């Protein structure tokens, strides 16, 4: 059972330090084991203290927001310094990144987790559905990390009724079905005896109130299909198939709870020059026969500008060289992969007369007898 620290204190995730402190005082008074008659008071009081301890420490709060509740607790259990940079603790590297990327994502829709409405008392309102979308980025963007703007179709609060589902002037009355409790209890006779079942009231959908009019725009749902433009922080080193999570950017809750999350499946586009294998890159370097023979200094492109590369004397076609640390950054700043340069000796497909003579002389000097077919290249070309 995990409980978000903001929920525990009943504040929104963008609450100020003062708001958090005063919420703490209020809750602590309410659940102090000496005064409260709640059977779980001691347990709750501990949670309240814990939440306050984390959320009033700027560094810890930042880490908490970045990692999300579960990952933060896990990290703390493992003695990980919550103030530090990366939480590279095995498994899915993105599980807890929501807060860090979300930035503006936290906060807006999150006002009413406690006492969220009507006759439901302290029951925690259901979270909205998670949504999923895809995002394509270039290899360069995966190399640098990028702040990417994108749009996503998702339900948005209805403008016309402000998400209420009914016009503001509609008359409200207590639901006659549940007498405003929001819940109905059904008793059934079964062979095993009487079974009592409590469910949300079907008439008012758990609200306890019914209205004389329903909003025509959203047919009482409170939300309509819309499109949101969001910005996600894509970390350097991300790979195709990995998923980012933006907390509370999914569907709105049907009952004043927090939104669901938005899951973003990242695809890194193929690149013209580099082939990626995990954190390593592969590059094919064409060189001439004389360069391969004598060695040369050439420029090799990397994603961070070109670098000088020494082709050693006597390089064979197909030989591969490793440029350490010139590959992709590893996620969360733990070094960099390598760039593998595969040399390809290019055989010329046309020669001028001087080159031809020189090459024939070269062959002769080595003792090779070659029967040179003068018209060879022209013939082949015509054939195609
Ligand atoms: Zn009702
Ligand atoms: Zn509406």
UniProtKB/TrEMBL annotation:
SUPFAM superfamilies: Chaperone J-domain, DnaJ/Hsp40 cysteine-rich domain, HSP40/DnaJ peptide-binding domain. It comes from the Archaea. One of its GO terms (biological process) is response to heat. PROSITE patterns: DNAJ_2, ZF_CR. A zinc finger (CR-type) spans 145-227. The J domain is necessary and sufficient to stimulate DnaK ATPase activity. Zinc center 1 plays an important role in the autonomous, DnaK-independent chaperone activity of DnaJ. Zinc center 2 is essential for interaction with DnaK and for DnaJ activity. Belongs to the DnaJ family. This is Chaperone protein DnaJ. It comes from Natronococcus jeotgali DSM 18795. The lineage of its organism: Archaea, Methanobacteriati, Methanobacteriota, Stenosarchaea group, Halobacteria. The gene is dnaJ.
